[in-house]
């Protein structure tokens, strides 16, 4: 009789017969849109699905299943889409990957210039690159405007994540100093921090790996023009790597937890005529030691790529494939190059925009996107 009462006892939409921990475990495996709907069922469901125990578990599971992420530029706005990575891309597939359109289908950023596109996704969030930064979570649709940066000159903003304290930080670099803001701490005010070497960033080339934000920059001091800046997000400290122009002009990627710099030889992008891929990996930050790797593309590269537009390196998957994608196609093919097998695979991505599709000419592709269902508080008044 008591068991029957437990099964019949339902309040606020949650059955007493289902332990809270089991509810969290089950729901954490559902799509983001389902979680958003379940939060509206009742106050009890909302309390469970907004609790840190649930959001941390969901983020942990999402980190184990990274997605391809697409930003489509349309009339000064960016529309966000994502799709799971191909699990076993052993052969060219005629079935496209269908990209999901996120709830935050559009967020406006200030300029049409390429340097003013949002940052790379970092643990599910993006940040615009201007003096009045906008933080956006495509999974929840939440957009938060940060306090305006008061600076004497142009500013560049970068997003980093500290996996130890589980905090996002936004770094602002300008000619009159560097500032940092901790996102989600309530007040969210900008703090001046010391930068031993004044520098001018290259706006479109950054990546955050294991709590370190890397970006390319030009030194404003004589004798060391080309830099890769390493910013420790947790301790808010800078390290500067003096590099040659070849590394400086490369695309920064996550190479199995290390910083990698990839550049086609000899161009700045890949075409059907490309024959090799040049990779340098940062092995020792303190001693600034890099290892060099050169990979000859297989003969099938030319046929599989065909007469398509220029391809750009996107990054490297956890299973060891380099990923390439164009920037001027709405429904692009992505290309996966496996160094060990010496194979190239072509996969089509389907992004549905309806009648506006023909008006869009820019698609940015990123690896390792994760979905975060945590809701952040908007900043309070700050100086």
From TrEMBL:
Transmembrane segments: none
Top-level division of the source organism's lineage: Eukaryota
Classification via Pfam families: F-box, FBA_3
Domain spans labelled F-box: 12-61
Classification via InterPro entries: F-box-assoc_dom_typ3 (IPR013187), F-box-assoc_interact_dom (IPR017451), F-box-like_dom_sf (IPR036047), F-box_dom (IPR001810)
Protein name: F-box domain-containing protein
Organism: Eutrema salsugineum (Saltwater cress)
